[in-house]
Amino acid sequence: MRRWRQQPIVSGALVITNVIIFILCMFTGNRLYALGELDRINVLEYGEYGRIIWSMFLHADTNHLFSNMIILFFLGSMIEKEIGHIRYAVLYFLSGIGGGMLSLLFKVMTSSMVASVGASGAVFGLDGVLLAMVLLWNERLPNVTPVRVVLMIVLSLYSGFSGGNVDNAAHVGGLLVGFLGGCIVCIFQRRKHKRVY
């Protein structure tokens, strides 16, 4: 049972699901994108709120998919091992939803008609969770320091803001929600640890 808990079940399932959906998109043209991409008209005017989640599983191209899935699997596996499958899955989806909602807010504020896809909001949420963990977690994570995590986040954000066609609002939203959720998990874990000892 303990070995089962140590396996990156959720991270692996998320990667496999994203890859399968991307393959389906290759064979269905724009059909799945039209049904799931995140845009303010369909969400806010037609009430298609499911797009906030569905868009997390759509990717524009192979590079977009590959970069998100590599980070998702390796960073996600480390976090999942520490906090458990359920809490990890909850934080992942909350980060993605938070990223999608800030993205929508930004689209409304700028009257943007651009649609967004991708898991990067949720992936940035994992960065936020990791930052919370290096600051508040009971146990030290091997080879992970606050300075390294902050540097990784800064470089990732800089890459997004200096690039084109990137939903930076989703990145920031996911990062903030992930950090907040990670802090809450760490605080509860510390209290539980104190009760045990």
List strands and helices in order, with pairings.
Layout: H1 2-6, H2 9-28, H3 31-36, H4 40-45, H5 51-54, H6 62-83, H7 85-110, H8 120-136, H9 146-162, H10 168-196
Helix pairs in contact: 2-6, 6-7, 6-8, 7-8, 7-10, 8-9, 8-10
Structure description:
Helix content is 77%, strand content 0%. The protein has helices spanning 2-6, 9-28, 31-36, 40-45, 51-54, 62-83, 85-110, 120-136, 146-162, 168-196. α6 packs parallel to α8, α7 (85-110) crosses α8 (120-136) and α7 runs antiparallel to α10.
Shape: globular
Number of strands: 0
* Most strands sheet: none
Question: What would you report as the Rg, rounded to the nearest angstrom?
Answer: 17 Å
- What level of helicity do the residues show? over 70%
Structural class: mainly alpha
Report, as a whole number of angstroms, the end-to-end distance.
24 Å
How many separate helices? 10
Question: How confident overall, as mean pLDDT?
Answer: 92
Along the chain, the helix and strand elements come as HHHHHHHHHH
